Amino acid sequence: MEIPVIETERLRLRGFEARDLDSFAALNANPRFIKFFGTGQPISRYESWQVMAMLVGHWHLNQFGFWLVEDRKTNQFIGRVGCWRPENWPGIEVAWGISPDFWGYGYATEAAKASLEWGFANLNVDRLISVIHPDNIASKRVAARIGEVYTTTESVNGKISDIYEITRSSFMAIL
């Protein structure tokens, strides 16, 4: 499967490639970034390779997944974003993770909005969700900026998570 490329005003969303491992591993080794993901602890380069392979594989199994986010002008790695639904997930999620070096510039909002648009255009769903750590205030702000609303707090794979969602009709109304 060929992973689609999306371009926004400032960003390019594209499939991961082997050459992206250095940047992706550095991101996952950053304690500020990883705080609200997985165990909350930095992961090794080898574990980052495994995660990257899983993200690529998700596209092939489901025809949707995560993109690498890069600056359109410089091709600099910024983070990752996309739609996914791993086993036992409460719905198809739009998720984002931007390098702390790029926090505060609106990249998460821009990339997440592009993911929502792609998701509603290409997936047969009436709602998309975001699973957010209860203490991740910045991600809750991104969720609000892209039109998602808090719906519930539940255990997702053994971790308490706040669930935000947006319906297709709500998203179409704010386009």
TrEMBL record:
Coiled-coil boundaries: none
Domain N-acetyltransferase: 11-169
Highest taxon, organism lineage: Bacteria
Pfam families in UniProt: Acetyltransf_3 (PF13302)
Signal peptide start-end: none
Stretches that traverse the bilayer: none
Gene3D superfamilies: 3.40.630.30
SUPFAM superfamilies: Acyl-CoA N-acyltransferases (Nat) (SSF55729)
InterPro entries (UniProt xref): Acyl_CoA_acyltransferase (IPR016181), GNAT_dom (IPR000182), N-acetyltransferase (IPR051531)
PANTHER family noted in UniProt: GNAT FAMILY, PUTATIVE (AFU_ORTHOLOGUE AFUA_3G00765)-RELATED-RELATED, N-ACETYLTRANSFERASE DOMAIN-CONTAINING PROTEIN
Protein name, as recorded: GNAT family N-acetyltransferase
Organism for this UniProt entry: Fusibacter paucivorans
